[in-house]
Amino acid sequence: MKKLENLVQDFLAQKNIAVVGVSDKRDTGCNLAYKKFKENGYQVYAVNPRIATYEGVACYADLKSIPEKVDAVFILTSPKVTEQVIQQCVDLGI
Asked: Model's pTM, two decimal places?
């Protein structure tokens, strides 16, 4: 369990986080995560290819569309989309 705790702490130590899977149609766990990260001082980037803005700021179609490199990615999507996002993480060195 200590290893998992260390991984979580490492993730939370990052300051630029992309949140993949935000929704403008309903409240989701991803939306809650986005809000919590933002409330706690993180630079947060919303990612969903179907919407242009989220919470009044730009929402990006994918990770490569974000104007700066993010340190970490929070993903809450369907398994098929998750595979694509993980491949983007690999390609971008995240």
From this structure: 0.92
H or E segment to which residue 31 belongs:
helix 29-39
Return the structure tokens found at 76. Answer: 């809450």
Task: Write the secondary structure of the chain as one string of H (helix), E (strand) and C (coil).
Answer: CHHHHHHHHHHHCCCEEEEECCCCCCCCHHHHHHHHHHHCCCEEEEECCCCCEECCEEEECCHHHCCCCCCEEEECCCHHHHHHHHHHHHHHCC
> Which tens digit of pLDDT belongs to each residue from 58-80?
999 999 999 999 999 999 999 99
Token code pair at residue 66: 């974000």
Through-space distance between the first and last CA atoms of the chain, rounded to whole angstroms: 24
Which amino acid is present at 6? N
